[in-house]
Amino acid sequence: MTLGPASSSEEIIAHLKGMHDEANIEGMGRFGINTGTALGISNAVLRSVARQIKRDHGRALALWASGIREARLLAAFTAEPKKMTTDIARAWASDFNSWEIVDGVSDLFCDAELQGDLLAEFAADEREFVRRTAFTMIAWSAVHMKKEPDATFIAWLPLIERHATDPRNFVKKAVNWALRQIGKRNSACHAPALALAEKLAASTDKAARWIGKDAVKELSGEKVLAKIGR
Fold first, then answer.
1. CB of 215 within 8 A of CB of 200?
2. Greatest CA separation found in the chain?
3. Are 188 and 149 in contact (CB under 8 A)?
4. Per residue in 20-49, pLDDT tens?
5. DSSP code of 79?
């Protein structure tokens, strides 16, 4: 079957099912990916499929509704950011069950410029993967929002500090990621991010201490200091 922009969600899902790979599913499981609905198709292949079928928001919603891992990633890759709403984002976030789905969809949420509406809300959410979404969005934004004022990122540091004590693996790793990416953005962001990292590194809380020490190590390294011109 040859896929293209006119392909329906049903045709795309049938094509994906034809690429089912049990060996790849086993490999994904070793990386902590939820494989309950997985077909075992790599993200590189899915990106190639996304380029073939192009963006179509209505079809993306149908792909997401299928519940299939690969179809949901394709939904993230082919949805139209300008048509994403906070309600759709909340509905999708409620379905999150794996770190890689969070990371794949967070890019879309950021492209849709939903950070201002959803960051604090998602960070306050007790569900592990919804909270992870907030900090994945911060990490993505720190890298890609080149024209955004540094004040935006510095203003997100208290949110990072507030949730640095969450011991859950996929949350603390995202909190750490967000802190490091803000610190690596430029010299203006580096100083306050490093100061927070040092504060967390001295914490009596195990999760916060790990986040802080890891961030201090990278933000104090020669590679980062050279990048930001110090």
1. yes
2. 58
3. no
4. 999 999 999 999 999 999 999 999 999 999
5. S
Residue 15's H or E segment, with its range, is helix 9-17
Alpha-carbon span 72 to 78, nearest angstrom: 10
- Contacting residues for 18 by C-beta, under 8 A, at least 6 apart: 1
Q: What whole-number distance in Å separates Cα of residue 112 and Cα of residue 183?
A: 24
| CA atoms of 195 and 76, how far apart (whole Å) | 35
Cβ burial 10-23 (10 Å sphere, 16+ → b, else e): ebbbebbeeeeeee
Cα(34)–Cα(30) distance, integer angstroms = 10
Q: Which two tokens stand for residue 53?
A: 């079928």
pLDDT confidence band for 229 (50 / 70 / 90)? confident
For residue range 58-105, list pLDDT tens digits in order: 999 999 999 999 999 999 999 999 999 999 999 999 999 999 999 999
pTM exceeds 0.85 for this model: yes
122 contacts 175 by C-beta, under 8 angstroms: no
The residue among 117, 112, 44, 33 whose CA lies nearest residue 74 is 44
